[in-house]
Amino acid sequence: MSKSTNADTPLMQQHRAIKQKYPDAILLFRVGDFYETFGQDAVVASKVLGITLTKRNNGAAASAELAGFPHHSLDSYLHKLVRAGHRVAVCDQLEDPKQAKGIVKRGVTEMVSPGTATGDKLLEQRHNNFLAAITPAVSEQYGLAFLDLSTGEMLLAEGNGEYADKLLQSFHAAELICSKKQLSSLKEQFAVKVYTYTLDEWIFDTTYANESLLKHFETHSFKGFGVENMTLGLTAAGALFHYLRETEHPHLEHISRLQRIDKNDFLWMDRFTIRNLELISGTQPESPTLLSVLDNTVTPMGARLLKRWILFPLIDTKKIEERMQWVLSLSTSKTLREELITHCSECGDLERLAARIALRKISPRELRQLAQGLQAVERIG
């Protein structure tokens, strides 16, 4: 053991041991009424959060950088760190300091990254927050999986490089998981401008992925989901579940089904077409878009669905006519339309509220909102 390590206080030894488990995350270390950051974490936190960076001799041979903030400000500062593209490990005191014998027991209770955010301050209500995974190419084919942890929606796809690029651009994932050997070629081929995180090659093993998924869904096959032949897509999904377990997300019961994205169901547009048609973003910051013109939705769920429909236009005539018939029915019946708008506006974000129960993060206020929303749904029915 080095001289400096021997000279560390018990507190700093504890911090070092926990930090070693999360070397690529900013560790927010609870000390009394504050969350503290040390060393390089403190340097980064002070720049992103605009808080004071100091140096303190914590019993070590050399002083260490230090930056902290009050514990009650966690939500605000966590939001800023994640928005800046950082992974954050929240380390809390696991016992009452007054009852502790010796140093207080601490441990990481939450790991947050751009793709695993579930808190209101970390999410945009009217947009999905997708965590994506892509497998290494097999015979020039890729497997992709997209998960919105805040709603439990999970989608699988397979295709060549061009198709994979279109999916990555359309879903606009907040975070992308890939293998370590794949990272450099991935950024070159897909021009990916998203926070990426790499995993070891063995995690993208088909057998390992299947075992992990079958255990989670408590089933013996994927036939019931209609994805039994999507080997690469399932491999990508397995990598996502591995990542979630690795990042302290044990409560995933709300992820209850797998959905497939079929290439032949939609009109596929590349990122240049989407940009030039100004479907969801304009050429200028304040320019109107097709989405901004059409979006009169009254729930976050409706807003997210409308955006999906715009980016993934149907090509099946029958499905298009069915959708148009619903629009026609509502446009010609003012009474029905206004009644439906009233009830829907009372629903709130049922998808995310229900997911927060499974995630063990729902508050009493949110639970009441969920109850009111379900009552509104009953009136719609």
Tell me about this structure.
This protein is of the alpha/beta class. It has 3 domains: 3-112, MutS, DNA mismatch repair protein, domain I (3-Layer(aba) Sandwich); 122-265, 2-Layer Sandwich (Nucleotidyltransferase, domain 5); 295-380, MutS, DNA mismatch repair protein, Chain A, domain 3, CATH 1.10.1420. It has helices at 3-7, 10-21, 40-49, 74-83, 161-171, 183-190, 206-217, 231-246, 271-276, 290-294, 300-311, 317-332, 334-345, 350-358, 364-380, and strands at residues 26-31, 34-38, 54-56, 64-70, 88-93, 106-112, 130-134, 142-148, 153-159, 175-179, 195-199, 259-260. A 6-stranded mixed β-sheet has the order 3-4-2-1-5-6, sandwiched between helices. Strands 11-10-7-8-9-12 form a 6-stranded mixed β-sheet, sandwiched between helices. A hairpin with a 2-residue loop joins strand 1 (26-31) and strand 2 (34-38). The N and C termini lie far apart (68 Å).
Topology:
Elements: H1 3-7, H2 10-21, E1 26-31, E2 34-38, H3 40-49, E3 54-56, E4 64-70, H4 74-83, E5 88-93, E6 106-112, E7 130-134, E8 142-148, E9 153-159, H5 161-171, E10 175-179, H6 183-190, E11 195-199, H7 206-217, H8 231-246, E12 259-260, H9 271-276, H10 290-294, H11 300-311, H12 317-332, H13 334-345, H14 350-358, H15 364-380
Parallel strand pairs: 1-5, 7-10, 9-12, 10-11
Antiparallel strand pairs: 1-2, 2-4, 3-4, 5-6, 7-8, 8-9
Helix pairs in contact: 7-8, 13-15, 14-15
